[in-house]
Design brief:
3-stranded antiparallel sheet, disordered N terminus, Hypothetical upf0131 protein ytfp, alpha+beta, 5-stranded antiparallel sheet
Length: about 200
């Protein structure tokens, strides 16, 4: 992606959404889980999006998961990917996308995640994801994911690699967040080190 300067991260704009109306009678107050497959797979960015700090995610349930019937592609001029529905293998694509199932503790946390993810993927779509770790490993869970609703010409056709994102771009995002005064310099450096070492 040589058309983008290394010092300029591309991130979706987070805009507040109006509060939702009252829940329907008998409806669960816990938000539906959200499957994330891009920038929010980086723990420091997920923690920052939800708490304003790149610290531990102790208050958030995050589980490795796989969504079948999706393909993840790089977007032209962007650091983050887009996922589209695809059945079967075509052109070397895997017929699934690995990511994380995030169980937001509150409707407010879910709105923040939707604002972050929705800037790229539009409205949440229902997906079935298979848990890849923990006591529920192998279980299939009904979740939401923000899938690409834009012009297919914006998709590069190249798979998006989360390891490359962590290695080459997370530090840039954390520096930009720090430069905007949204994170302390020491915290950004510590978070970047943890992302790179997997600590």
């Amino acid at each position: 992606m040589a058309d983008r300067a290394d010092h300029t991260p591309t991130s979706p704009l987070i805009t507040p959404e109006p509060p939702p109306g009252p829940p329907e009678p008998g409806a669960s107050t816990r938000p539906r889980p959200l499957f994330v497959y891009g920038a929010l797979c980086a723990p420091a960015l997920l923690a920052w999006a939800l708490t304003g700090r790149a610290g531990p995610l102790c208050a958030l349930a995050r589980t490795r998961a796989r969504a079948h019937g999706l393909a993840r592609f790089s977007l032209r001029g962007r650091d983050y990917p887009a996922a589209v529905r695809r059945e079967g293998e075509a052109g070397g694509e895997k017929p699934w996308v690995d990511g994380y199932l995030v169980a937001a503790a509150t409707a407010g946390q879910r709105r923040i995640l939707d604002a972050f993810e929705g800037a790229v993927g539009g409205r949440p779509s229902r997906v079935a994801v298979t848990l890849l770790e923990g006591g529920g490993s192998g279980a299939v869970v009904d979740a939401d994911a923000h899938l690409w609703e834009g012009d297919d010409a914006a998709l590069t056709g190249e798979p998006w690699d989360p390891e490359v994102f962590v290695r080459e771009r997370v530090g840039v995002w954390l520096c930009a967040i720090r430069a905007l005064g949204l994170m302390e310099e020491e915290e950004a450096a510590e978070a970047e080190s943890e992302e790179r070492t997997g600590v």
